[in-house]
Design brief:
By secondary structure, the protein is mostly beta strands. Helix content is 14%, strand content 48%. The structure holds copper (II) ion (CU).
Length: 229
């Protein structure tokens, strides 16, 4: 009987501790940061005539330097919370499709990236970086996928030496990160509660940062305005 009581007390204690732990972890668990990036200038999209591999590349292409959508939203910017660890390690993918890098900006955690060639023609992956080793490899049409490593945080420029207009970026970012959509909005999920630094990067407009106070279980909004250079 006495032993039974002791076990009962122990179970109650353990259960209590588990509940306290769950509550505490829940309170620290994340909130969402909705990052809005605006640009108060004109879009910069260059049109270019193409005279190579036109059956796959078309006869005209666009180079998207500054893409401005509805409500002055800036697309293709990368928003991140570098202090928010434990972000998804889903494998990053960049595709070469229609002689363009798709998407224009890929966001990834340090690690591996799959480089696809869905064009059925020869491409070449040529990266420009300082923290990571530079990649310069042919990707013939039969090589549909190559896997490469980008293990250091960096914004890596990606080009193709076969098609001079091809330009993409791989944002290797620790913490929770996402690219802005055509309305200039990026959602950062599961950012730990408390003060967090939010960074925004754009390939031609540079970097900005702000501090936000993230509340668990709710959406914190923060707005940036990038200036023209
Ligand atoms: Cu190419």
């Amino acid at each position: 009987m006495r032993k039974g009581l002791t076990i009962g007390t122990a179970v109650a204690l353990v259960t209590g501790a588990a509940m306290w732990f769950a509550t505490t972890v829940g309170a620290q668990g994340g909130g969402t940061v909705e990052v809005e990036v605006k640009y108060n200038g004109a879009p910069q999209v260059e049109k270019l005539k193409v005279n190579k591999d036109t059956e796959k590349c078309g006869t005209e292409t666009t180079i998207e330097k500054v893409v401005v959508g509805g409500n002055k939203g800036l697309a293709n910017a990368v928003a991140s919370a570098p202090g928010a660890k434990g972000a998804s390690k889903a494998k990053a993918v960049i595709d070469q499709h229609g002689c363009k890098f798709v998407p224009h900006v890929v966001v990834m955690q340090p690690g591996e990236i799959e480089i696809k060639n869905s064009d059925d023609i020869l491409h070449n992956i040529h990266t420009y970086s300082t923290a990571n080793p530079s990649i310069n490899k042919a990707q013939p049409k039969f090589k549909k996928v190559m896997t490469e490593k980008l293990e250091k945080p960096e914004f890596v420029k990606v080009t193709c030496d076969v098609h001079s207009w091809m330009l993409g970026w791989v944002a290797v970012v620790p913490g929770v990160a996402a690219a802005t959509d055509t309305n200039g909005v990026a959602k950062l999920e599961n950012v730990p509660a408390g003060k967090q630094k939010i960074e925004v990067w754009h390939e031609t407009l540079g970097k900005q940062e702000k501090e936000v106070d993230v509340k668990a279980g709710s959406v914190t909004k923060v707005s940036f305005e990038m200036k023209g250079k």
